[in-house]
Amino acid sequence: MEKFTVLKGVAAPLPLVNVDTDAIMPKQFLKTIKRTGLGSAVMFDMRYDDSGAEKPDFVLNQQPYRNAKILIAGANFGCGSSREHAPWGLLDFGFRCIVAPSFADIFYNNCFKNGILCITLPQADVDQLTAKAQGGNTKGGEFVVDLAAKTIIAPDGVVTKFDIDDTRRHNLLNGLDDIGLTLQQLDKIKTFEAKQKAEQPWLYA
Amino acid sequence: MAAPRTLYDKLWDSHVVHSDAVGNCLVYIDLHLTHEVTTPQAFEGLRMAGRKMHRTDKTIAVPDHNVPTTSDRLEKIKDPESRLQLETLEINARDFGVPYIPMSDIRQGIVHIIGPEQGLTQPGKTIVCGDSHTATHGAFGALAFGIGTSDVEHVLATQTLQMQKSKNLRVLLDGALPTGVTGKDLILAIIGKLGTAGGTGHVVEYVGQVFRDLSMEARMTVCNMTIEAGARAGLMAPDEKTFAYVMGKPHAPKGAQWEQAVAYWKTLKSDEGAKFDTEIRMNAADIVPHVTWGTSPEDVLPISANVPDPNDFTDANKKAAVQRALDYMGLMAGMPLEKVRVDKVFVGSCTNGRIEDLRAAAAVLKGKKVAGHVGMLVVPGSGLVKHQAEEEGLDQIFVAAGAEWREPGCSMCLGMNPDILQPGERCASTSNRNFEGRQGRGGRTHLLSPGMAAAAAITGYLTDVRKV
After folding, report:
1. What is the ipTM of this complex?
2. Strands B167-174 and B278-283
3. Does any CB of chain A come closer than 8 Å to the CB of residue B332?
4. What are the structural domains, with CATH classification, of chain A?
5. pLDDT at B2
6. How far, in Å, CA of B285 to CA of B177, rounded?
7. CB contact under 8 A, B414 and A27
8. CA distances from B382 to B128, B310, B329, B378 (A)
């Protein structure tokens, strides 16, 4: 997994509540057997019309947001299906960070597994960042997300602090591979299995 | 004396392999259900890293999301991407040694239907699957939840997950359900009360006589849709009904181990005085048949209600969401739900594709006809459900009424196979999600119970099943 330290980039505003993973990545793109190449399908129904042409009024079809790396979203972002194709697509589009008042549990977890930082902030803070992102990222335009410092610096220089679980932060900062870490505990897993087998033998019948 | 624990606490505690000082846990997984959509990249990840599965005896693979439901499906799957994904599952199962149920097998079906059918789903287990409706299995007192593909790979490689414990939420219902009101209505009403994010960060336990009174099938319907309230898992304490359902199933414990298992399963309930972080309380007697009107499962009302008006909401986000939903759904504020005309009716899915659901729909349809402008699709949840329904003659009732009787799979619940809505088409559906485009781009979904779906098929409009 790619490390996440400091991210500089354009932020795209998407102030809609309950954006589900079907909306982020519709069913027809779940037939892939790869993780890559899904960026062009992100937000498909909002982004393209019935003929497949871009809808000019959708944020990701406008400059400077075509090159956005940060998404400023609404509450309960990523609800619904567990499909990891949603974060894969967001990552492939270029997003490494999503800011929202709240996230759905499975989506939140899936993002961190793919090196996407999800930042939860109070609605008022998100509203302010949304407004700044909607302003076309004035003053040169880039937001800076610093994971080590736990800050978001808007283009106007205003700093927003955020909190995040220390373990998730540590793993992202260092780009750690979860499976590799767990396999270091293989002895404990085998000990657990031996004990469980003795106590609940039907699970091993 | 140890502090009283919830059912979730007990299930969690008994599966923690290791815990660090700040609550990061390694949790053991007893059963891993896999299907074709969320596993190809996980198996590929193992190959790329040169890893094997930790063990293969706690995993099963079955195709369900992509499979066509037409009778010619064994000859050829037309969509090349679907075909490749289905073939990939079969190859991965063979290469890694995972037990596999092919499409040609009578046991094939939706992964959440076959787990219980095969006796793989048991009280006390931790169960995961790359599918959010894994919550279904909580009906047995198993801790069951959906995971992403990275976590699928993690379970394949280690039989564990890295997790932090969720909070406890109790949904307490007093009283009994009125006649004609089902488990589907119950969970839709609960989602309406909790909201689509109300359960986020929690595991839900459903408590009250009304849940005890439900059949196992209806309990699965309730737990299945727990995720639509934001909670990854929903639980019901196992009881004699649970044990009777599991007993004799192919993978159920046998002989002396059965007795030993049941003795353990009887301890799986929340202790008196156990602490819940959150609680909601409702009166079951107040619950009537429900139907969704919008594009989130929380957009739900009694069938007797009218479509809401955005101006009735003060919260700006909610007002905008309601207006957007009405525009998408092609509905006018204030119109009675019973005046909403439907084009399609879908009976099936992991929510309502079990034998009891088909019986409920058939009971309403028997001797009647599907309205002329309506197309009705009945898709059993598994080959065994299909066989049982045919033994009971339910297929004849559906066909005589003018409905299509299909092969098992996820079908029109999410439209990964050819069963999809056309833009603007409106469907009365027994599935679990009414999101924009869920059943097909531009398709409009109204979630309801199997009996309500059958009633809508007959009248051609959303209809209170108690009037048909």
Report:
1. 0.96
2. parallel
3. no
4. 6-174 (3.20.19.10), 177-205 (no CATH)
5. 85
6. 5
7. yes
8. 19, 41, 31, 12
